[in-house]
Design brief:
Rossmann fold, 14 helices, seven-stranded parallel beta sheet, binds guanosine-5'-diphosphate, 343 residues, 50% helix
Length: 343
């Protein structure tokens, strides 16, 4: 069982119905929220029901992704942002995501998330997630966890990833606004360009501005982002903000930059477009994951191995082989009690 003991106070949440769990999460009960996220993480069979119940309650939260190299100050900045949003009376969800780690909730991320000051605040939900070896990985799980936090009434959801690998950048960019953090030195520019994070950043933060080289880092960013060049009218011009997250300096400016970007998204109809794009990715990921699972259920490994052997020896082309695999899944679906078409 995941999620640990649920036994005190609100009763054993592992026994309650999905409807009840969703109702409790909606009322803001942290235990119910935690339990729902555990169901996401564990790819529970109840998840289908959970998501159906959550769907009408979602779409309200403003989702901010934060990415940047390890040690740049993401956790510290996230914590400072939580403080700022809480001071403004907003409910905040934090999802710390580590796509490279098979561990969740435990020591690794627990240590990273410098959130102890918010631990007792009922207006803040903090959760870390790792892959747990699920087929779809975190690209699949993170958006579902965001849905839980959204339905639980979070006004703002901060999705923080540990580094700047491909999957980290992908997860952080599945947000309404994506924040990219860099620090003076560290050769961030080169690293950033490599991972393609310049393209996904809406707001750039040069953190550790108390260190030497902050001006140079800001200049380098301006140059790399082409901020001196003309843009089409109405295009977003990425903000570059300096901060010293440990002292809370510049955090207000980061919040302002976020609000400005959010206003721009809304004015341009871009918020809705981004959300549709995000939903498309989500649906696609779920569908592909389901297909993989079904291939596995079919005894797919043997079937796949047999097809692969033919492909390897030139007896069959890979497209025809893939068609056969997909057809086998469709056949199995059609023969059994597949989903009935609904209007
Ligand atoms: P993350 O790995 O990107 O999440 O980075 P952390 O938030 O864990 O910060 C890494 C280290 O840098 C910690 O020791 C922080 O206290 C420190 N740090 C964070 N922000 C600043 C800053 O603005 N200035 C300085 N000097 N140190 C900072």
């Amino acid at each position: 069982m995941d999620g640990g003991s649920d036994d005190d106070g609100g009763g054993d949440v592992s026994q309650v119905t999905v409807a009840e769990l969703v109702q409790r999460a909606r009322q803001g009960q942290p235990r119910a929220v935690a339990r729902l996220i555990s169901l996401v993480e564990g790819a529970s069979p109840r998840l289908r029901e959970v998501m159906a119940a959550l769907a009408p309650l979602t779409g309200r939260a403003y989702v901010v992704g934060l990415t940047g190299p390890p040690g740049v100050g993401k956790s510290t900045t996230t914590s400072a942002l939580v403080t700022a949003y809480r001071a403004a009376g907003r409910r905040v969800g934090v999802l710390a995501v580590d796509p490279s780690s098979p561990f969740s909730g435990g020591a690794l991320l627990g240590d990273r998330v410098r959130m102890s000051e918010h631990a007792a605040d009922p207006g803040v939900y903090i959760r870390s997630m790792a892959t747990r070896g699920h087929l779809g990985g975190l690209a699949w799980a993170a958006p579902q966890a965001v849905r839980v936090l959204d339905a639980a009434g979070c006004d703002v959801i901060l999705v923080e990833t540990v580094g700047v690998g491909q999957s980290e950048v992908e997860i952080a960019s599945q947000a309404d606004t994506t924040v990219v953090l860099v620090a003076p030195g560290m050769g961030d520019g080169i690293q950033a360009a490599k991972a393609g994070i310049l393209e996904v950043g809406d707001v750039f933060v040069v953190n550790k501005a108390d260190r030497e080289g902050a001006d140079a880092a800001v200049r380098e960013l301006h140059h790399m982002l082409g901020l001196g060049e003309a843009r089409a009218p109405g295009d977003w011009r990425p903000s570059v903000v300096r901060s010293v997250a440990t002292r809370g300096e510049g955090v207000e400016e980061v919040v302002e930059a976020l609000e400005k970007h959010r206003a721009w998204l809304e004015e341009r109809g871009e918020l809705a477009r981004r959300r549709v794009r995000r939903a498309a990715r989500e649906v696609e990921t779920i569908a592909v994951t389901a297909l993989r699972e079904r291939i596995a259920d079919l005894g797919g490994d043997q079937r796949l191995a047999a097809l692969a052997e033919q492909v390897a020896t030139g007896g069959l082309d890979p497209y025809a082989a893939a068609d056969r695999l997909v057809a086998a899944v469709a056949e199995a679906e059609g023969g059994g009690s597949g989903p009935s078409p609904t209007g």
